[in-house]
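Beta-eliminating lyase-related protein: structure, please.
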Amino acid sequence: MSDSNEETRRDERLAAAWRAAATTLTRGPREATVGECLARLAEGPYAYDMDAPADIYGDGIVEELERRVAELLGTQDAAFFPSGTMAQQVALRCWAGRTGNPVVALHPMSHPEMWEGDALSTVSGLRVVHPTTEPRQPTPEEVAAVREPFGTLMLELPLREAGFLLPTWEELVALVEAGREREAVIHFDGARLWESTVRFGRPLPEIAGLADSVYVSFYKSLGGLSGAALAGPRDFVEETRVWRHRYGGQIFRQFPQALSALAGLDRELPRLPSYVAQARMVAGALREAFAASGVPWSRVHPEEPHTHQFQVWLPHDPDRLTDAGLRQAEETGTVLFRRWSAGGPPGLAVTEVDVTGPGLSWTESDVHEAVSAFVSRI
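Here you go.
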């Protein structure tokens, strides 16, 4: 059997094991079937008039979603986008036009640099500079030391690839001030901004109020089907709607995405602080369990999670660890870790841990037992 066939077979086993597991820290988007997604969408109840006409080109329920987002973030307006990639491309392009400077200062581990196929330069004609290449948030001193003018400072909150890292509130304020001292506008990549209130100790409007524009996702923390929003001043958001049309984002009908996003705002958003608290318990229990298990070295990063997601590092081959987690899921019905990769520090495998509703029932003892079962299969 070829390597590609073996990989496909393992992917199928992983998906089947995750779906069948009775005990898990989260339910991933790859586990749901089409039928399950449809059933969940039809569940209700919704705080929206289901007898209202279906949307056409962004009216109706889409406008209601935009209103809710602007209200939650304390901005003048918000625009729905079919994807975060499109939303951020449009935001950064609009700011470049307004500032007259096509240079964007951002982290090399941020989403536009890692996952968008060089779209900033290829599609939008923008150029980037990196205040730092270290796997952490930049410092105000590094922003101040960038050697050329830049029109926009983009901050990813949290910085996912580095371990879902957030600055402290004081550090964030200083970063924004450093950007403004460089006469740059501030854009927050807030795909996961919803759960940042715990770390910052501030409400969403105060956090979003530091920036000139904010992007938020509806599926990465809220469990929506897809979609994103750009929020900011009314004239800026109106301009982004023009570019949304030009980029192909003026979609005829979007009520499934809008309805699931509204459900996420109603049901998941209030629960996110409890997920963060539980993730911190799980992280501490993982450290203790690995120390007691005989594993020569391990790390939970960051030591106290900044959100409900964090990384675990182990000095083993990532395929070996993925297979161990697969066997644990198949044999015990418990999913502790999912996929591992070599994307961490040299010689270490890394995985992301996500704690949501299904993980709220876990105790420290449950984590210890799951780690013991996992380690025995490495």
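Notes: The longest helix spans residues 272-293.
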